[in-house]
Automatic annotation (TrEMBL):
Top-level division of the source organism's lineage: Eukaryota
Keyword Repeat set for record: yes
A molecular function GO annotation: calcium ion binding
PANTHER family to which the protein is assigned, alphabetical: CALCIUM BINDING PROTEINS (PTHR23055), NEURONAL CALCIUM SENSOR 2 (PTHR23055:SF69)
Key word Membrane present: no
Protein name in the entry: EF-hand domain-containing protein
Entries under InterPro entries matching the protein: EF-hand-dom_pair, EF_Hand_1_Ca_BS, EF_hand_dom, Recoverin
Length: 201
């Protein structure tokens, strides 16, 4: 059971936690240990750092963008953050709690290539229909350009042109869309495309 599956399934349980969102229960620690490679000590350290930044135990979109801006001072983080935030906010409550945060960290940093490409796919699939179309891909490429401060967007670097090329290269089914399997297999088989779509994998 991969951390990305847990991340995407967490929001389906429904119901709010009755305890304070700033406390870490034994059950939570057990779940996080089972679904990440973090030890209990590391989980508690991450939790302390998370509460330092988010004393109420919730990371909102504004704070999320602030954090990203520190890593990418030369770019505009807002558009990219909208996609990333929606991916990590598994229960769609407009905030990221500690469990969602740590599972997202684990999926993007500890997961194997498939796990990390799965997270990238979910980020690109803005409509949540299990497919990435050319429009979604072009928007995401544009958001990545903004994030990285990339200003050369002409010719084959144009987001729409680049999106059309990627879909033409990876679309095995011929429906001009990418499903998760096509996306993951395509990225693994084409290092150039993987660097474009999932540079940290």
């Amino acid at each position: 059971f991969s951390s990305t599956q847990v991340l995407s399934n967490m929001g389906n349980k429904g119901g709010k936690k009755s305890r304070s969102s700033t406390e870490l229960s034994d059950k939570e620690i057990a779940m996080l240990k089972a679904n990440t490679k973090f030890s209990e000590r590391e989980i508690r350290e991450w939790h302390a750092g998370f509460l330092n930044d988010c004393p109420n135990g919730k990371l909102d979109k504004k704070k999320f963008i602030e954090v990203y801006r520190q890593f990418y001072p030369q770019g505009k983080a807002d558009a990219f953050c909208k996609y990333a935030f929606a991916t990590f906010d598994a229960n769609n409550d407009g905030t990221i709690d500690f469990d969602e945060f740590l599972l997202a960290i684990a999926a993007t940093s500890q997961g194997d290539v498939n796990d990390r490409l799965e997270v990238a796919f979910e980020m690109y699939d803005a409509s949540g229909d299990g497919q990435i179309d050319q429009k979604e891909l072009a928007k995401m490429i544009l958001a990545m350009y903004d994030l990285l401060g990339e200003t050369d967007r002409k010719g084959d670097r144009d987001p729409k042109t680049r999106a059309a090329y990627i879909i033409a290269e990876l679309d095995v089914g011929g429906d001009k869309k990418l499903n998760k399997q096509e996306f993951i297999a395509g990225c693994k088989n084409d290092p150039v495309i993987q660097r474009m779509l999932a540079p940290n994998v």
